[in-house]
Amino acid sequence: MAHTTDRADALATAFERVAADLRDGTATLYGYDVRTEPRPRERGGVSYADGWLSFEFERRIETE
Fold first, then answer.
1. Sign of CA dihedral 8, 13, 15, 16
2. Which of 6, 38, 47, 58 has the fewest CB within 10 Å, making it most exposed?
3. How many CB atoms lie under 10 A from the CB of residue 50?
């Protein structure tokens, strides 16, 4: 089995490829959803040359 750093490098390369495709317009963003309650969250999917990427970002709420 590959080392964790090998897998992390492979994922980073794939994410960079998706980001580049989004920037140049060859990838398409689908199902984008933004919520602010109970905490900020964004989710959706990206169709790109090599396949499909689903994502969900959830941000921590800063306490005062």
1. positive
2. 38
3. 11
Number of H helices, E strands in the chain: 1, 3
Tell how far CA 1 is from the center of its chain. 25
Query: In this structure, which long-range contacts are made by residues 46-54, counting pairs with CB atoms below 8 Å and at least 24 apart in sequence?
Result: 46/18, 46/21, 46/22, 48/17, 48/18, 48/21, 48/22, 49/21, 50/14, 50/17, 53/14, 53/18
Report the candidate in 55, 59, 58 with the shortest Cα–Cα distance to residue 45. 55
pLDDT tens for each residue of 25-51: 999 999 778 888 888 888 999 999 889
Strand partners, 46: 29, 53
Distances from the Cα of 2 to the Cα of 14, 54, 56, angstroms: 16, 23, 26
